[in-house]
Amino acid sequence: MNSLFTIKKPRTHGVKYPHYKQVLAQLTPEQVKIVKSKQIHGSKTSKEWLDLFQDILLYNQALSVKQGNFSFWATIVGIPLGLIIFFLPFLIFKNTLLIAVSSLLIMFTIFFLQAHITQLHSKLLADYFQDIIVPLMIVLHEETAVDARITLHVDLRHQKNEKHFASYINRYECYHWQMLHLSTQLYNNVNLDLKVNIRLYTKTNKPKAKRIILTKLNVQYPKKHHNIIDPTVIDQQAYKVKHREKPKKYVLSLSQKLKLKNNYFNEHDYSDLKLQALVQMIRDSYRVTVLKP
């Protein structure tokens, strides 16, 4: 996600994006609800989800380009020019009133630029949408039946959103939220339930932060389709592994805790959670199965 102020223009790779308001006007009520609330809740097939996401992704990309370009020009041209004009009246005018009016005008302009950039930035979905949710749904599209329902709950609000705030602990602001909860049935008749919970602890008087990402995969293997499961094939160092047998199914739980520390915390950075780690966890759950002939 772009920072509020940047000295780099956004990379479009030659793609010319429409204005984000033009895209917004063409969204369905369901899509508008998602971009406004930054939350996704529902149960659909993988194709239905991907169709729903297509225009939302375009909207978010167009908005990101607009915000990035506006921020770039405001940072490179607007603010330096404003500062020059701010001090220029002191050299040209001797009238105190003219100096005061010019100063107030420049201050208002800088305030307007900052407010507009902040407003555009607040409309963006967290990067997890294009980096995790959409690619993961593409993977599941290949691993699920055409009519298989995928239940999805996603929180794409910015990580320091007030709704994520939990408490103050030892001069840390604590934010807790469940970014992803997904459940479906795969081609091999395995029932999958995936959760990603995030905990963020930011220092109140320093730009330091600690993050904990908890990923848990619960998988159920019906005995009528699977002879047995063998959890020993899974890397025990990578996950905390639990398994048990029930009368009609085997149950496997894989959990992983990622701890991170930032000496300088960037609240606009969402690159800590990797798509490959989630996909690998799902693939590892495949490896334990022995299908019935």
List the helices and strands and how they pair.
Layout: H1 20-25, H2 29-37, E1 39-44, H3 46-92, H4 96-122, H5 128-143, E2 150-155, E3 165-169, E4 172-185, E5 191-203, E6 209-222, E7 226-229, E8 240-245, E9 249-262, H6 275-287, E10 289-291
Helix pairs in contact: 2-3, 3-4, 3-5
Tag the structure with descriptive keywords:
293 residues; alpha+beta; 2 domains; eight-stranded antiparallel beta sheet; two-stranded antiparallel ribbon
TL;DR?
This protein has helices spanning 20-25, 29-37, 46-92, 96-122, 128-143, 275-287, and strands at residues 39-44, 150-155, 165-169, 172-185, 191-203, 209-222, 226-229, 240-245, 249-262, 289-291. The chain has two domains: 20-37 and 46-122; 145-291, no CATH class.
Explain this structure:
By secondary structure, the chain is α+β, with helices and mostly antiparallel strands. It folds into 2 domains: about 20-35 and about 45-120; about 145-290, no CATH class. It has helices spanning about 20-25, 30-35, 45-90, 95-120, 130-145, 275-285; strands at about 40-45, 150-155, 165-170, 170-185, 190-205, 210-220, 225-230, 240-245, 250-260, 290. The strands form 2 sheets. Strands 1, 2, 3, 4, 5, 6, 8 and 9 form an 8-stranded antiparallel beta sheet that branches. The chain has a two-stranded antiparallel sheet with strand order 7-10. The longest helix is centred in the N-terminal third of the chain and has 47 residues, at about 45-90. The chain is elongated. The two termini are about 50 Å apart. The model has no long low-confidence stretch (mean pLDDT about 85).
